[in-house]
Amino acid sequence: MTLLLAGDIGGTKTILRLVETSNSSELQTVYEDSYRSGDFPDLVPMVQQFLLKANTATPQKACFAIAGPVVNNTAKLTNLAWFLDTERLQQELGIAAISLINDFAAVGYGIFGLSSPDLLTLQPGKPKPEAPIAIIGAGTGLGQGFLIKQGNHYQVFPSEGGHTDFAPRNELEFQLLKYLLDKHDIQRVSVERVVSGLGIVAIYQFLRDRKHATESPEIAQAVRTWEQEAGQPEKSVDPGAVIGKAAVQKSDRLSEQTLQLFVDAYGAEAGNLALKLLPYGGLYIAGGIAPKILPLIQNGSFLLNFTQKGRMRSLLEEVPVYIILNPQVGLIGAALCAARL
Fold first, then answer.
1. Would the pTM count as exceeding 0.90?
2. Which of 63, 80, 270, 326 could potentially form a cystine with 338 if both were Cys, beta carbons 3.0 to 4.6 Å apart?
3. How far, in Å, CA of 185 to CA of 39, rounded?
C-alpha cells in the first residue's frame, strides 16, 4: 500500500486528505480535515498539524491543487500570501515526491475517480473512447481545459479560455456588452465577466438598471450590501447565490430573468469550447454553480444554446455532456495525480 496526500488549496479554505492506494489503483480515504487558509502563514505548518492529528506515517507522495497558476513547479495563490515551491515543500515536509497543479487541472484528473451518482447526463451523445475530453466550470471565475489520451492515460491541459471575448448573439446580449464596457470603462469584455458567479451579479445589475423587472427588497439588500463592500477581501454576502436560489424557487422575477440569460450564455460558451475540441470523449460541466441551479440547466435552454451553431448543430448533438455533482472532484483529482508521480 502507498500512502498519498492530496490537497485542495483555496484562498479561503484548504481541504487535506490522506489516501491509500494499492496495485488495483483504488483510492481509500484514511483521514481528512479542512482548515481556514488564512490562519496559517504557509502550507507547511498546516500539513504538519494535519499529519500530527492523523497520527500516520509520512506519505510517500503528495499533490496539491492550487487556486492560481502553477509555473515551473511553483505557485503563488491568487487570494493568499503564500508562495509554494515543490523542492522546498519536499524538504520541509519530508515527502519524496510532490506536485503542484492548477485546481482546474485537478478537476480534469478527478473525472476518472467519479462514479455514476457523481454525474448527471445532460446529453448522452455518441461517445468515442479515443476522443478528447473537455471541461468547463463556472464558479468564482470560468475555468476551461481539455484532456488528450496518451497511451493508457490522459494528459490534462489547463487553458485560459474563460478570458476569451464575450460574444453577444442577440439584442439583449449586445446591450449587456455595452453596459459592461461603459460601467467598467474597459475596452473588451471577457466571457468570464458574464459566465461566473460575478457574472450572475453583473447580469442582475444590468437588468435592474434597465428596469426589466421590479426588485424584491431581499435581493436588493443583498446586492447593495455586496456593492458597498467592493474592494474588501471578504464579503458578508454572496449575491450570486441569493439570486440563483430565488431563480430556482421562482420567487423573484428579476432573478429568474438573470439566470435565464446566464444559462443561455453558459450553454453558448460550452458549445464554443466543444466546437474547438470536438470532445466526443465527453464535455464535463464542473464548478460550484451548475449543481445549485440544476433545474435551470436541465430545462432545455442550456442544450439549446449549446447546439445552436448553425450547420455544426449535428456535430454538437453527438457530444456527451455531463454535469459533475461531486464538489470534491478536485480533491479526488489531486489524489489520482499523486498516485501517478
1. yes
2. 63
3. 36
Residue given cell 435592474 in the structure block: 208
Among candidates 250, 235, 144, which has minimal Cα distance to 198?
235
Residues 6+ apart with CB under 8 A from 19: 3, 4, 5, 6, 27, 28, 29, 30, 335
Q: What is the largest CA-CA distance in the chain?
A: 62
Residues (pLDDT < 50) of the chain are none
From CA 260, how far away is CA 256, in angstroms rounded? Answer: 6
Phi, psi dihedrals of residue 190, rounded to the nearest 5°: -80, 155
Query: Are 267 and 259 contacting, i.e. CB atoms less than 8 angstroms apart?
Result: no
Task: List the one residue out of 175, 140, 137 whose CA is nearest residue 159.
Answer: 137
pLDDT at 231: 78
Give per-residue pLDDT as tens, 147-178.
999 998 899 998 889 999 999 999 999 999 99
Element spanning 88, H or E: helix 86-93
Residues across the chain: 341
pLDDT at 11: 80
Supply the DSSP symbol for 42.
S
27-36 and 83-85 strand pairing: unpaired
Distance of alpha carbon 235 from alpha carbon 59, whole angstroms: 36
Position 191 scores a pLDDT of: 98
